[in-house]
Amino acid sequence: MSRVAYVNGQYRPHGQATVHIEDRGFQFADGVYEVWSVFDGRLADFDGHMTRLHRSLDELRIDIPMSREALTRVLQETVRRNRVTEGLVYIQVTRGTARRDHPFPPEGTPPSVIVTARSLPVSKGNAAAAKGVAVVTHPDIRWGRCDIKTVGLLPNVLAKQAAKEKGAAEAWMVDEMGLVTEGSSTNAWIVDADGVLRTRDSQSNILRGITRAAVLALVESEGLTFEERAFSVDEAKQAREAFYTSASGYVMPAVSIDGVKIGDGKPGPVATRLRELYLNQARRDAI
Ligand code: PDD
Fold this sequence. Notes:
Blueprint: E1 4-7, E2 10-13, H1 24-28, E3 31-39, E4 42-43, H2 46-60, H3 68-81, E5 87-94, E6 112-119, H4 122-131, E7 133-139, H5 154-165, E8 170-174, E9 180-183, E10 187-191, E11 197-199, H6 210-221, E12 226-228, H7 233-237, E13 241-246, E14 250-257, E15 260-261, H8 269-285
Parallel strand pairs: 7-8, 7-14, 11-12
Antiparallel strand pairs: 1-2, 1-6, 3-4, 3-5, 5-6, 8-9, 10-11, 10-13, 13-14, 14-15
Bound molecules: N-(5'-phosphopyridoxyl)-D-alanine.
């Protein structure tokens, strides 16, 4: 079946789904995006992602392209038209199309909106999670507003490629203090040598992951000891468990960091349990 994308008011086959060459997303990475996971054709963690999308737009002073209700319908319709039952839906909103010039375009320039959806069976992720994945570390060379989900992802792309070239699934980015910030497209977690679950605090320069927030709520309801406190690469390598969270990977156990085995080299019980809890909840609450 051919895929269909929403582009500025129209649903089009991918081959004909195009934006203008002077779209500011293309020229300046002047845009934001959001990703929802899809279960049974429904969007998970819906409000969290929608609220973050609006926050990203506000922070960059990009006009809200349409009402929340209209946007919800477009997201759901794109999923439906692509017959995605398990997968991802992606939205990108840019500051629109205008002659290339760095300042904002004239007031009233409509933002560009594109939405795509694709299948990604949960069973594929489950197979990776059952074995656990490899992580490598990489310097964090990003800007100071990583809390905004912008399409300016070049440092993330380079980090993920470095991971891929080393046979790893993810790169954990490391700041100048030797502390892990987050993954190239995920949030990083460990169960440290003392058994404390840790993830970097969301006030620092990281993306405030929606899956991270959902998992933190589960951690609290399970009564696990946790701290939102940064950890070093050394602490991660000595941890009992390591894992990462995102809309595309849910909760993914990491079994090595830079080739160093974590714990006994198998997915740990905390990560495995949190994955199960998260998937159950996300499925149940999807809309
Ligand atoms: N990535 N950190 C970064 C840098 C990310 O790009 C993402 C999401 C996350 C996890 O956030 P969430 O739990 O809200 O998905 C953390 C998406 C999935 C992507 O770029 O495809």
